[in-house]
From TrEMBL:
This is Zn(2)-C6 fungal-type domain-containing protein. It is found in: Nucleus. The keyword Transcription applies. It comes from Aspergillus ibericus CBS 121593. The keyword Ligase does not apply. Residues 76-87 have a biased composition (Polar residues). Residues 43-87, 110-129 are annotated as: Disordered.
Length: 652
């Protein structure tokens, strides 16, 4: 017999019900507002007369009243265990065992290839890449996902984010892993009082880019009620201690993180919930920053699998679960944290898989499983809850990460679908059907990327098809995004991809009027967007770390522009007389735009990126082609600069 259907949320909040007060029933009731406390509405009970077994269970619950309150507080922010967890765990086992199996899967996907050789093939200069800080990794993902993706398709010279691109993977593959299971020692959390825990939580939320995958309000409430997950809290405190940057704090951090890692052998895969996925995601971030690629990949893959399963479970019950806190639906808060965690773990997976040439046919479907993170602070329910609960101390720092995380999610989506069409032997199970989503313009970007099909054709046709899809996405973004800074940032990545796809690897370069026009459009975008970049860097519209990330992405786009123009004019000079007048005129306009872009380097904004000198030298070298091109056309060349946006020229 089916259980009795649940009612909507309770008419009285938890506080009024416990005090037997008349509740106003508003999103934040008058009693809670007067006392400045959280107003929490629980799920309603079954309608109708309860069955005898349910009544007996209810009486036992009442008899154990002291233990029921912490369980309710846990349920308000952690998804309950679900039988569907067995999808990824055919037998009852620990998370540590599952991580070992994931590591074996990664090794198998390499199909016997030497990781040392794979990484060495990407190496550039002998300069060593340092370990990354947790904020630096966010900047790396923003740009290096683009760099690593275009390197597969493009015949252009790519100035990668790292001078020695392969070093971190050569070193990281031999880094430490989880190792053999260790005996679970007493929790080091016992040595932390509530005040120190609260202070370290503040440090973490103010410093870590993944602070958006947790709710500070709900975490503090569980700490106060002693209903927290010790695994998650240990990882969070260990990460926070690293921000103090002293030797004693680092020793404490290592103890907490090692204890958390050893605890995973006592956590069942069937009981892995949202807090488990959050802890695994934070461990993946930490291990990546330390250069330990294999354990980082295992953590990120299993965290993504767990959060994907939880997302499906939560969406299935979202229409029935109407719990609220301070007027905000708790299920929607859970979903926002899951979506952000899903994208950030997927970004780590795609970044590692791309560099190591690992094939995984399930990635496109995973990218379609999650809605994109909030685009700004006003769209975030997690931060809205923090404001309502007056947890304000770290809000400015949390606001700083929203736009960059949103940008990474879209870059990851594009990288996933582009890598999926790269011609190579495929492996892995067929991709599952994606979840249905609301038809927002961001979902349209997903759907467009799905239109890139894998045909048995040459790389040139693949690039042409991908370019058409990305160009349509550019139009969607331009038509729907009002925030000029956010639009410039994401379009910088898209335009960089478009430039590289104009020059496919191992394909003969055919200089046509269309190619020249497409390239001119991209150069014009970079000219138009530079004032936005200057404004961001001078008015502090973004935090310093995000500003640097935006500048580096823009510099990668300028490098692609200079490399593309250089490739055109490195074609044998004997071919110049054979080109059509329209092509020659277009080339003349390209050279004029090159001069305009060269003038950007007089501004200090670009000088913070190590590649600026190389890119500037390219633009200087290209200026000599003006005279050669003018002498080539008998009738004289169209006036250079004809057709260029006069407003842009005036701005520059």
């Amino acid at each position: 017999m089916d259980p009795a259907p649940l009612t909507d949320r309770r008419r009285s909040c938890r506080f009024c019900r416990s005090r037997k007060l008349r509740c106003s029933g508003t999103s934040v009731c008058s009693a809670c507002k007067d006392r400045q406390i959280e107003c929490l509405y629980d799920q309603g009970g079954p309608k109708g007369r309860p069955r005898a077994s349910a009544a007996r269970a209810s009486s036992r619950l009442v008899a154990g009243q002291p233990g029921s309150e912490p369980a309710m507080k846990q349920a308000s922010w952690k998804s309950p265990p679900s039988p569907s967890g067995q999808v990824f765990s055919p037998r009852l086992k620990s998370v540590a065992e599952a991580l070992g199996e994931v590591s074996a899967e990664v090794q198998e996907k390499l199909q016997g290839r030497s990781v040392e050789d794979l990484a060495r093939s990407q190496a550039g200069s002998p300069r060593r890449a340092p370990k990354l800080g947790c904020r630096e990794l966010l900047m790396v993902l923003t740009q290096d996902l683009v760099d690593a993706t275009v390197a597969r398709f493009s015949g252009l010279d790519c100035l990668s984010f790292f001078p020695d691109q392969g070093h971190c993977f050569r070193q990281g593959w031999t880094g430490s892993s989880n190792g053999a299971p260790q005996a679970l020692e007493p929790a080091p959390l016992a040595g932390y009082n509530s005040y120190r825990i609260t202070q370290l939580i503040d440090v973490w939320f103010g410093a870590h880019p993944l602070s958006m995958v947790l709710s500070k309000t709900l975490l503090l409430r569980d700490v106060r009620s002693n209903a927290y997950d010790p695994l998650l809290l240990a990882v969070l405190l260990g990460s926070a201690l690293l921000e103090l940057e002293d030797a004693e704090a680092r020793v404490e951090s290592e103890q907490l993180l090692q204890w958390a890692s050893s605890r995973l052998q006592y956590v069942s895969t069937a009981s892995a919930d949202l807090s488990t996925a959050q802890a695994l995601g934070l461990l993946a971030w930490h291990e990546t920053c330390q250069g330990n690629i294999l354990p980082a990949m295992a953590y990120s893959i299993y965290a993504n699998r767990t959060v994907t399963r939880l997302t499906m479970d939560t969406l299935a019950r979202s229409s029935r679960d109407v719990r609220q806190i301070n007027g905000i639906n708790l299920v929607q808060i859970e979903l926002e944290m899951m979506h952000i965690l899903g994208w950030m773990t997927l970004a780590l997976m795609v970044w590692s898989f791309t560099h190591l040439d690992i094939v995984d046919d399930t990635l496109p479907a995973l990218a379609l499983m999650h809605e994109h993170p909030p685009m700004n602070k006003d769209a975030s329910l997690v931060l809205r809850l923090d404001r309502a609960a007056d947890n304000l101390s770290t809000l400015p720092h949390q606001w700083a990460w929203i736009q960059e995380i949103w940008t990474i999610s879209h870059i990851t989506s594009a990288a996933v679908h582009l890598n999926a069409i790269y011609p190579r032997p495929s492996s892995g199970p067929a991709s599952p059907a994606p979840l249905s989503q609301h038809h927002s313009w961001q979902t349209q970007l997903h759907q467009q990327l799905r239109n890139i099909q894998l045909y048995k054709v040459d790389i040139g046709n693949l690039c042409s098809e991908a370019r058409a899809v990305l160009a349509r996405n550019v139009q969607i973004i331009e038509a729907n995004m009002e925030d000029q800074v956010a639009q410039t940032w994401i379009l910088t990545a898209y335009r960089t991809l478009l430039i590289h796809l104009l020059f496919p690897r191992m394909a003969p370069l055919s200089v046509t009027a269309d190619l020249v026009q497409h390239l001119a459009d991209c150069l014009l975008f970079f000219a138009r967007s530079f004032p936005v970049l200057v404004s961001v860097s001078t008015t502090q519209a973004l935090p310093r770390a995000s500003t640097q990330s935006c500048i580096r992405s823009y510099m990668a786009g300028l490098a692609a522009c200079s490399s593309a123009i250089d490739a055109l004019f490195l074609v044998s000079h004997k071919q110049l007389p054979c080109w059509e007048p329209g092509v020659l005129q277009g080339l003349g306009r390209l050279l004029e735009q090159t001069t305009r872009l060269d003038s950007l380097f007089t501004n200090d904004t670009l000088l913070t990126d190590w590649r600026w000198r190389t890119v500037q030298e390219r633009f200087h070298r290209l200026s000599k082609y003006k005279t050669e091109l003018s002498a080539t056309e008998p009738g004289g060349m169209m006036p250079i600069g004809d057709g260029l946006d006069e407003a842009v020229l005036h701005t520059l």
